[in-house]
Amino acid sequence: MATRVSTAVLGILRRSALDPSTKSFICRRCLHNQGVPQTPSLACRDTAFLRAFKSPLQNSIRQASSASAPATLNSPLASLGRSIGVRRSPAKLAGFFPTTNHKNVAYWLLGSAASVFGIVIFGGLTRLTESGLSITEWKPVTGSVPPTNQEMWEAEFELYKASPEFKQLNSRMTLEEFKQIYWMEWIHRLWGRIVGVTFVVPTIYFIARRRVTARMALNLTAICGLIGFQGFIGWWMVKSGLKDDLFAPGSHPRVSQYRLTAHLGTAFICYLAMFWNGITILQEKIVNQHRPKDSMGQLSRMAHPKLKTLRRSVGALLVLVFITAMSGGLVAGLDAGLIYNEFPFMGLGLTPPKKELFDPFYSHTSDQSDLWWRNMLENPSLVQLDHRVLATTTFTAVCALWAYARFVPSVRNTMTRRAKRGTNLVFALVWAQATLGITTLIYLVPLPLASAHQAGALALLTATMYLGRHVWIPKRLIARVTEMQVMASRQHQKGRITLPPTAPRTPATTSPSPASGPVYQPPKPQVRRPLRMPRMMNEPKIAPGKPGPRRGSNPPGRGE
């Protein structure tokens, strides 16, 4: 009895279950053409035909795209670009920020970098004229308005009279002389405010108007914070020259060489950040203007394994040039350029006596554990020697790098044109900088030469970074070009693929409606025309249908 009940229940469930066969399904064409009498079996045949047609088409697309893809897509550089592209989040790319930067952002960044370059040089002039301590107050907003009448000038002069610099060095200074150093410091501070405003406001605009990518927006925000931090360091540096307890025993009032070097280094970093991001955007625009195949060729040369040593050398050279420039800041803060005004000797030898280089006077501990580093940073003799050694090392490194890039055939033939130009520029600037440094030392630090020497240091850093931009591997740019190349290859293959022919279909009893779409027609075979033999120089033209002269016979019109 139980067996009969279970058999009946299974039969009911089997009859009520959904039939998975193709006869129970109706395609979209049947639902759309309700007025066309068409049997489900014919619709199922249409569905099966489309399913059978779709699979070989997809396979043909895959085979065609993999067979005709450029060789660069299978290169290590392209695989690196694809791996970088996979790490990108599609949600971020399709979010608020665009995928490319506007070219106006690059021009604005380079203009801001030029403004920072100018303020660095003007700041050096402010230090050389000893005008940095003329304004004893820090007023970020109200300080932008200079004194406009005699009473305001007298009030500013009275504040300066209370400073240690006036009491020990400039006790006989008049009001007119004070105005000269006041205007130097006031212009320097106003220039800094202008740099901050002209960078922060456009940054907000470009981010709000979606002119920069997410990474570039983060970089611009970081530079804005760096500019604000630079203003704080500037006042922190000036403040060190307004207190007697911060001076070394027996020295005249000056700002701390540590704070001066920090102020100079922050300005250099701010300038290099603006310049680097500017030329990066320009390089992206140049690559986007060319075909992906040509762009990948240039990037492949930049990422060539033969340039591995050159890439590392340029990175080390950039760090060396920056450290040398910072040692120059210590020389300026200690006025170390006013001693041993000769080159290459320092006194009776190449170096001063050891007792002078490591003087116990600069040690602040009883066991003299800080003797070596205190002398390296506070002893003018050792600070100048350090700067000489670093400058000579930088000069030698640049010359060796230039010779390596010029006389090694594998490196010379692999470098791009811009990389060769950058190498020559660095080589020329290091010679000019060495000449300016030696001349400045011999002539007791004259104002024009000292200012030009400071500008040369920043110019050498700029050229080194320009060289690095064209020899270092731009990973994100490679990923972008690889993506563009894959898209172009797919579009090219999509236009070349032809639909495969199919078996003729059984005609329906009624004519199909126009809504059913056009009937697929297989492509016509291309008929090749027969090749024509080239006509001889003196062979006459033969009219169609007439036999021509035999080879070897004289042409008509000539005698036997």
From TrEMBL:
Localization: Membrane
Listed cofactors: heme b
Pathway: Porphyrin-containing compound metabolism; heme A biosynthesis; heme A from heme O: step 1/1
A single Gene Ontology CC term: mitochondrial inner membrane
Catalytic activity: Fe(II)-heme o + 2 A + H2O = Fe(II)-heme a + 2 AH2
Bilayer topology: Multi-pass membrane protein
Record InterPro entries: COX15/CtaA_fam, HemeA_Synthase_type2
Principal subcellular localisation of the protein: membrane
Organism domain of life: Eukaryota
Keywords carried by this UniProt record: Heme biosynthesis, Iron, Membrane, Metal-binding, Oxidoreductase, Transmembrane, Transmembrane helix
Region (Disordered): 489-560
Pfam short name (any one): COX15-CtaA
TM region(s), chain numbering: 105-125, 190-208, 220-238, 258-282, 314-340, 387-405, 425-445, 451-468
GO biological process: heme A biosynthetic process
Molecular function GO terms recorded: heme A synthase activity; metal ion binding; oxidoreductase activity, acting on NAD(P)H, heme protein as acceptor
Residue spans of biased composition, Low complexity class: 505-518, 550-560
Name of the protein described by the UniProt record: COX15-CtaA-domain-containing protein
